[in-house]
Amino acid sequence: MEQELKWTGLVRRAQTGQKEDINKLAQEAEGRLCAYIYRVTLNYDLTQDMSQEVLLQMIKSLNQLNSVESFWPWLYRIAQNKIQEFYKAKAKKNPALEEAFYKEFISQRSKYHQEEGLRKLLQKELSKKVVVAMKHLKQQYRAVLSLRCFEQLSYSEIAMAMECSEVRARVLFYRAKQALKKELSHQGLKKGLLLMCLGLFGKLTALREPQARQ
Fold this sequence. Notes:
Elements: H1 2-15, H2 19-41, H3 44-61, H4 71-89, H5 98-112, H6 116-122, H7 125-135, H8 139-150, H9 155-162, H10 166-186, H11 194-205
């Protein structure tokens, strides 16, 4: 509740047009926004560029936000639209070899965090299997899993972020979990390890400690 009041107050002040408040809102939102975009794209450089585009769009459109309580679903909707635009514009290429992709992932991830424990975790085979499994999901599935499990949005908030009905949001989340179970199985991991693998993925891609939701 305290966190919600903090954000609503900050958004209200930014909507008055004061440059100092707008800059503070952008600075406060950047870390959480980057973590979300990174989990969906799995690309560090793209995350950096896209997060700046989203924040600029946020500043331009802030007065169009009618309910300050809906700030985060509204911001994720802007991000999701940017992500979809990127994938639509991107020429379809053959998927990278898993080994090459994971080496690039490790290289990019090190730019986020220099923690020794995380570097060791990245070297483990289990971590590689989890990240590769997530890479094989549709970006829409990575998005809904991130919004529900790590950003802890309600289904109504997810519906707003993904511009769909609440029923559709629930269906997407169910399908995303089933698809992830299937991909984990292809990597030789039991389906019962879903929650553990989600938690591991959250740690590998977080700028802060994630809390997975069942």
